[in-house]
Specification:
CATH topology of the largest domain: Aspartate Aminotransferase, domain 2
Strand order of the largest sheet: 4-10-9-8-7-5-6
Shape: globular
Subunit structure: Homodimer.
CATH class of the largest domain: Alpha Beta
Radius of gyration: 22 Å
Number of helices: 17
Cofactor: pyridoxal 5'-phosphate
Strand content: 15-25%
CATH superfamily of the largest domain: Type I PLP-dependent aspartate aminotransferase-like (Major domain)
GO molecular function, one term: 8-amino-7-oxononanoate synthase activity
Number of domains: 2
Protein name: 8-amino-7-oxononanoate synthase
CATH architecture of the largest domain: 3-Layer(aba) Sandwich
Number of strands: 14
Pathway: Cofactor biosynthesis; biotin biosynthesis
Length: 411
């Protein structure tokens, strides 16, 4: 039995176990759109964020090296940066990537972070200073939340997508603060809905505030050029500071902030997660740069992904009761994050397990990641999927729902 200073840790773990919420890491291999567990079972992967199928393409064309080597190292690109970007870790690969992102995002400059988490938390914590106010959507990603907590600004959390609440706070309290920041995800990662950017940027302009958007799940997926939600709704020119990731649709690793040159230079001078972390691996920077430079041309992949998402939402809405009860906008209907709300933790775990037994990997998402009573399966689509993959999965879900645990099909 664990005692002494570690007893509190053991008690917290025991509580998570008792609640059925203890998380585990499991070794898996990826093979195109398939996931292979340590026992060799193959499942069609609906759990990752490889929205454009970049990772699946690389594994099919190159093959996955299970011995630890990388294609980048074989080609002479260093596997590690060996230092912070501000020391000697910023290579020509990083420089080319930053310029490619700035061009793609139609901004003056960009800076690269070792992870999307570091980009979000570091950007918010650095730009939002003492004497400022942050207005943060209640369903923002943990990285934005941690950035708010680490900043010296006061933070108020507003109800999800509640423009009226933001307006009321700004009307009543704007004069108390040097600067007000409205911080929001663009696409919300657990529900697949989008922030009301048009209304938020109007409020920001009216009250001399600054809107900051995390485009993690929009980059590569939305917009004619794949720049993200801000492009898709025609607001790139009005939303100057945007955060993105290179680990989802871009299929590599790392994160970035893009915006006016003065903002990027300020982050380089004062952002601690950037200054005191080893820079993104040059292999990751070089690979991400190749994708960013091709992103605009991948319109057919985006169209295919949109069609899959619309088809999946349509079938699940019409044939099950698991879809959230709200009207999806045309844009939202094509977002490749499809939540199946089942309610209880146990039901989510059981449904995920039974799908796994039939060859599909769809993870169960439980509190505290999502609110109590909203445990779900998070269906994540990829351009590597085909419609028959999606239909087969949905048919299997419907079959399981018709014959829950303990129930036997009629003979």
């Amino acid at each position: 039995m664990t005692d002494g200073p570690l007893a509190n840790f053991a008690a917290a773990l025991e509580q998570m176990t008792a609640q059925g919420r203890r998380r585990q890491v499991q070794p898996v291999y990826l093979d195109g759109p398939w996931l292979i567990d340590a026992g060799g079972q193959r499942r069609l992967n609906f759990g990752g964020n490889d929205y454009l199928g970049v990772v699946a393409d690389a594994l099919v064309s190159v093959g996955q090296d299970r011995g630890g080597g990388t294609a980048g190292e074989a080609a002479g690109v260093p596997g590690g940066a060996a230092a912070s970007a501000l020391v000697c870790g910023w290579t020509p690969h990083h420089e080319r990537l930053a310029k490619a992102i700035a061009t793609a995002e139609n901004c003056e400059a960009a800076v690269i972070f070792p992870s999307g988490y570091a980009a979000c938390s570091g950007c918010v914590a650095t730009l939002c200073r003492a004497g400022d106010l942050i207005l943060s959507d209640e369903l923002n990603h943990a990285s934005l939340i941690d950035g708010c907590r680490a900043s010296r600004a006061q933070c108020l959390v507003y109800p999800h997508r509640d423009v009226a609440a933001v307006s009321e706070i700004l009307s009543q309290r704007r004069s108390e603060f040097n600067q007000v920041w409205i911080v929001t995800d663009g696409v919300f990662s657990m529900d697949g809905d989008v922030a009301p950017l048009g209304e938020l940027v109007d409020l920001a302009d009216q009250h001399d505030a600054q809107l900051l958007v995390d485009e993690a799940h929009g980059t590569g997926v939305l917009g004619a050029r794949g720049s993200g939600l801000c492009e898709a709704v025609g607001l790139q020119e009005r939303i100057g500071i945007r955060i993105g990731t290179l680990s989802k649709a871009v299929g590599h690793q790392g994160g970035f902030v893009t915006g006016p040159r003065v903002v990027i230079d300020y982050l380089i001078q004062f952002c601690r997660p950037l200054i005191f972390s080893t820079a993104l691996a040059p292999t990751a920077a070089a690979g991400a740069c190749r994708v960013i430079e091709q992103m605009e041309a991948w319109q057919e992949r985006r169209k295919h992904l949109t069609r899959l998402a619309q088809h999946a939402r349509g079938r699940l809405h019409n044939e099950t009761t698991l879809m959230p009860c709200r009207d999806w906008s045309e844009l939202e209907s094509g977002i490749p994050i499809v939540p199946l709300i089942v309610g209880s933790d146990q039901r989510a775990v059981d449904l995920s397990r039974r799908l796994g037994e039939q060859g599909y990997y769809v993870p169960a998402i439980r509190p505290p990641t999502v609110p109590e009573g909203t445990a779900r399966l998070r269906l994540s689509l990829s351009a590597a999927h085909q419609q028959e993959h999606v239909d087969a999965l949905i048919d299997t879900v419907i079959g399981i729902l018709k014959h829950p645990m303990g129930a036997k099909p009629a003979s």
